[in-house]
Amino acid sequence: MIAMTLLFLTLLLGLALVPLGLPGLWVMLGATLVYWIVVPAGSIGGITFGVLAALVVVAEVLEFTISGRYARKYGGSRRAGWGAIVGGIVGAVIGVPLPIIGSMVGAFAGAFAGALVAELTVARETRGEPIRVATGALIGRVVAAATKVAFGMAMVVWVMGAVLVGRLSGNG
């Protein structure tokens, strides 16, 4: 019961970290691994852990590609798409020292700035309106964060469902 409670609290903590741009999904995956090791007769097994690991990887890939795709969707060049991706990563890293929301704000601002700067460097005849493109990158970053939260919620439901089913059947 204590292990299950700690797992649940850690999953909620991880879920709370996700919208802040912190590695909440990885915290959730780690908590599930620890639970699997500590409660070997429990209902968390290789399939559950494998599915969760796949969800984390897919969510991370989506997080970094959605903002670039939105920059392109809003008329940006390929360079603007890459600028949004790189800017989002750099902004998140630079924002880390700002407590609680720094990496999230940094990622949003970085995606905007990266797309804007990249779009301004493209030859005039292939360039879309830079502010519009950068706004698209920012919207993409918000969509990416929301997508990652949805993945985190799915992980919480999956893990807690597996744990509760295991407890009901006498395995955890």
Brief characterization of the structure:
The protein is mainly alpha-helical and about 170 residues long. Helices cover about 80% and strands about 0% of the residues.
Main beta sheet strand tally, sense and closure: none
Count of separate structural domains: 1
Structural class: mainly alpha
What's the tally of helices?
6
- Beta-strand proportion: under 5%
Strand count: 0
Bulk shape = elongated
What would you report as the Rg, rounded to the nearest angstrom?
Answer: 19 Å
Ends: how far apart? 8 Å
This entry's quaternary arrangement is: single chain
Give the helices and strands as they follow along the chain. HHHHHH
> Unreliable segments (pLDDT under 50, ≥5 consecutive)?
none
The averaged pLDDT comes out at 88
How much helix, percentage-wise, in residues?
Answer: over 70%
Keywords: Membrane, Transmembrane, Transmembrane helix
Transmembrane segments: 33-59, 80-98, 104-122, 142-165
Pfam families: DUF456 (PF04306)
